[in-house]
Amino acid sequence: MSARRAVFLDRDGVINALVADPHSGRPESPLKVADVALLSGVGEAMRRLAAAGFLLVGVSNQPAAAKGTVTQAELIAVQERVIALLEAQGVRFDTFRICWHHPDGSDPALRATCDCRKPAPQMLLDAAQALNIDLANSWMVGDSHSDVLAGSNAGTLTVLIEHPASEHRRGLASAATLVAADLPAAVSMLLEYGEC
Fold first, then answer.
1. Residue 126 known to be catalytic
2. Residue 12 annotated in active site
C-alpha cells in the first residue's frame, strides 16, 4: 500500500479557542468542558482536507495535569468535547495523539522529559508509522514555534498560524513553510502549495 499524505493539527489556538489561564491570565488551553468552543470555519476547513485525500492527525501537548492544575480526567473530558463538536460538523480525526508530560510537573507519574512533547517529533513519527504516512508530503499546522519545530523535526512541511492570542508562544523568527492567519486560510494555502 502506498504511503498517504496527512495534515498534523495542533488543537488549542488552531481548532478550538484559547481561554484565559486561571493563574497567568494568558490565553491557553481550555481546562473545563464549558470553555470549549471551536474557532470559526474549522469544520469546513478540515472537511476540505479530508476531501483532498489528507489523513487528519491531531497532536497536542496537554501538560496541565502534570503541573497539578487539573486532573487528567478533566483534560480527557475537554478533549472529548472538542471531538464531539467536530463530529457534529462532519469531521473525524484518523488518529489523535496527546502528550500528557511536562519536565517540571508536580505529578510524579507525568513528570518526564519525553520524546512526545512538541517540539520533539515522536507523536508525528508514531502516527506516521501506524498509518503509513509519507511525512515529506505531509504538513504540520500549529500556532506555536514548538509546533513548527515538531513538524520540521519529523520531516513535514509546516504552517504557522499567527493566532493573535497565542503570540506569546512565538518568540523566535518562524522557519515555517507557510504562515496563515487561521486554519481556513492555512488549508487554502497548503492545498494550493506546489500547484503554481
1. no
2. yes
